Amino acid sequence: MDFALEAGTALGVVGQSGVGKSTLLNLVLGLLEPTEGRILLEGEAWSPLAEPARRLRRPRLQAVFQNALASLPPHRTGWEILQEPLDVWRRGDFASRRDAAARMAARVAFPEAALDQRPAAWSGGLGQRLCLGRALMLEPALVVLDEPFSALDATLAGHLLGVLQRVKAEGTALLIATHDLALARILCDHLLLLGQGEVLWQGRTDGAPPTPEHPHLRALREAAPQLPAG
Fold first, then answer.
1. Predicted confidence (pLDDT) per residue in 154-164, tens digit
2. CATH number for the domain that contains residue 200
3. CA distance to 9, 179, 221, per residue, from 96 (Å)
């Protein structure tokens, strides 16, 4: 397969469970190595490369994993979680990191009052937003999201959709693996439909797949939740 992502655009990798969506994301993240072909990040070789060669460019590529709450350190407050990337990469002082965390909470619609709490106090929707905020703290060129809507009801999914639309409008590229075809069509500029590790169709979201009644596509349509009005 061959695809590219530009700043401020989103690619949705859609398909049922087990067809290879997460594997593709792990290849892009450099957590797995391709057996053929190559991956470029901002026009420069990314994979296959040894990790030491990728290390300094890691901030440009960030991830939000499927189980948001499980990926957050349970002993840290929201303030500490958002400031941690800046601490690790030694960006700014304590005051500037605190200000950056407050701005990021507002950006991803995470209530500032909840930043004093720890992950156990948050809903899945809030955990997902904080994970997104943490991923954005280093101003990456690309954020990779694995099934960001899967643990959310229709209302919370709609809220997260709005946040991601704003993030994309601000210039961040998004690569999203999801089984939710309806949300992918709203958020993404292009879709890549996978079935058993193979590309069944790819193109713009305003185009129609050549085989709309393919069983994989039909199953996704039937499973898609309805977003709340407005």
1. 888 899 999 99
2. 3.40.50.300
3. 29, 39, 46
